[in-house]
Amino acid sequence: AGGGRPAGGAQRRTPIGWISLGLTSLSAAGLYVLYRQQLALKLSNEKVVGSAALGGPFALVDAHGREVTDESLRGRFVLLYFGFTKCPDICPDELEKLSEVTRRIDAAQPRPGGVDAHGRAPIAPVFVTIDPARDTPERLRAYFGAPPQPPAVAAAAAAA
């Protein structure tokens, strides 16, 4: 009856198995702690400068050289689209969608004459250029005067 096995067929667990399990667990825990520290360090290194200034007064110049301000749009739903006239593909498609949304809303909410008490449409879609140095009022007029740009969208650039 020898053979180096304990009686009853039970195997003896070696200390190497427990040591391996312990080292693996410690390594995994250490890697997790290191990951969390690196993540916290990365987040703490990001600098936040102020906060977004949403809303407030603004002044734009439309394609005809007239000033467009927050006051001139007050009381209306304003749909802003930011783009530029050198945009060959996406901008015309998105402007057509914007115009279609405006037409659908107008059709669903008919008003006498299609205007409010001040003679203005209650929805004001506005194209705001992100390239005001190049998108002058003349260029905006040319861009919106050529098909397929919808006439329902007012073009505007940052005021000088």
Automatic annotation (TrEMBL):
Pfam families hit by this protein: SCO1-SenC (PF02630)
Alphabetical list of InterPro entries matching this protein: SCO1/SenC, Thioredoxin-like_sf
Disulfide pairings: 87-91
Chain segments annotated as transmembrane: 16-35
Residues annotated as binding Cu cation: 87, 91
Keyword Iron: no
Electron transport recorded as keyword: no
Single GO term (MF): metal ion binding
Domain of life: Eukaryota
Record key words, sorted: Copper, Disulfide bond, Membrane, Metal-binding, Transmembrane, Transmembrane helix
Family: Belongs to the SCO1/2 family.
UniProt-recorded name of the protein: Thioredoxin domain-containing protein
